[in-house]
Fold this sequence. Notes:
The chain is α+β, with helices and mostly antiparallel strands. Helices cover 21% and strands 35% of the residues.
Amino acid sequence: MIKRQTTINRIFKITGIGLHTGQPVNLEFLPRREFGIAFVINGQMIPARYDMVADTRLSTLIAKEGASVSTIEHLMAAFYFSGITNCLVYIDGPEVPIMDGSAWEFYQGMWKAGVYEFPENGVYLKVLRPVEVSRNDAFLRVKPLNTLEITMSIEFRSPVGKQKKRVTDVENAFSIINSRTFGFIEELEAIRKAGLAKGATLDNAVAIGEDSIVNPHGLRYKKELVNHKILDLIGDLYTSGYRILGKVEANKTGHHLNNLLLKEIFSDPANYAIY
């Protein structure tokens, strides 16, 4: 567990393709003394915080004064796993590149850059009271616990079916970092007609066909799909600005509910304490 605020030790760059635009995107990561992760696009700084989230339909999008950056969740998860609390990310496109569909390449860049530690603490948010949000049969709840524990349940059509996974040592759950995003073949055409997923390929997503995984090499893990939902959740929870301590139970959750949970936590100061 990290103890104090941190930033990257040196500047580094990453280039990739946007999942929805299909266009090249360049990221430049700069050390930051001020607390928090923030994106800079066209001269506008946007804090990567839950209260800046403006759209959660297919990804987590943050916006401020007409500027926006989408698909930040995998990168935010990489910051979490790298133990980085403070960083500036300069971006020259409207969305974070998809890379291989996981958080692995972002994490590798941060690991190579190294970590610089500051004297200040205040990096953990400890949940003090149970908090829950729900929508139909989907729900997300968190209870007090001295670490972060996540139990995720998903349910999709065959061949996915029902999957469930419990992660008790989240900070070291490296199988989560490189689990890829996924989608169903029958949904892809409609998404592309809407002008999205122009950059989606078998190199950056798991494609689920009528009765099997389309990717030639299959899955990286037996539970890669539920792993990736945990990755999304970790990235979204890190938009709290803190490393959350609590027992999280998630069922069929997505970016919308993930954001609602944070809003519910912060709606009452009695729900949490910062350490």
